[in-house]
Specification:
The protein has 195 residues and is of the alpha/beta class. It contains 5 helices and 12 strands.
Length: 195
């Protein structure tokens, strides 16, 4: 079982907008209509939330993250799932690049990619699984989503001030920062280990 990973930004009490976590059905998505949203994180659940926020009519999503993880697209997911043998990393990244070209991002420069100068191989190692969706790419292409590699330093009224000096106007902040293990049930049952 899990608990919500909690983070607090300085100035949350001054923000004057809606701040919530994406996990455990805490988010009231009806509150995003026609609003600019900062979606904080870049894991698989963040990628799913891009779609959900847009389905609920938000004006724009800014995905803010310390590191930009790679996101997969449906066609590549189908390729990987239906091949008898594992798809080589460089083949998968070449396929990824077709969609990432829409966003102006070179997958070969991602923090999680290890390769050589000729891209003859690729090893991908990131702390999260791939979010798989085409909506992420379409939203970026149509300027409904922007990825901001930065962190929130503090908040003021309807504004996020970043560590790189940007001021991002928004009315909603959705924290998609994952979960932590909960040991409440283990303690209640007196469990020391599971076999």
């Amino acid at each position: 079982l899990c608990d919500c990973r909690e983070i607090e930004f300085p100035g949350e009490n001054l923000f004057g907008g809606y701040i919530e976590y994406s996990s455990f059905s805490k988010m009231d998505y009806t509150r995003v209509e026609a609003k600019e949203v900062i979606l904080y994180g870049h894991g698989a659940f963040t990628i799913e939330n891009v779609r959900t926020l847009l389905e609920h009519g938000c004006k724009k999503v800014r995905v803010m993250c310390r590191k930009r993880n790679l996101c997969g697209m449906r066609i590549v997911s189908w390729l990987v799932a239906h091949c008898e043998w594992p798809v080589p990393g460089n083949v998968m990244l070449d396929a990824f690049q077709k969609m990432y070209d829409l966003l102006g991002f070179d997958v070969w420069t991602a923090h999680s990619v290890k390769t050589d100068a000729n891209h003859s191989f690729a090893h991908i190692s990131q702390q999260t699984i791939f979010g798989v969706t085409d909506i992420y790419f379409l939203a970026g292409y149509y300027d409904l989503m922007e990825v901001v590699v930065d962190e929130i330093k503090r908040l003021s009224h309807h504004c996020a001030h970043t560590t790189k000096g940007r001021k991002l106007e928004c009315e909603v902040i959705l924290k998609a920062v994952g979960t932590l293990p909960s040991f409440k049930v283990d303690k209640m049952l007196g469990l020391q280990e599971l076999h």
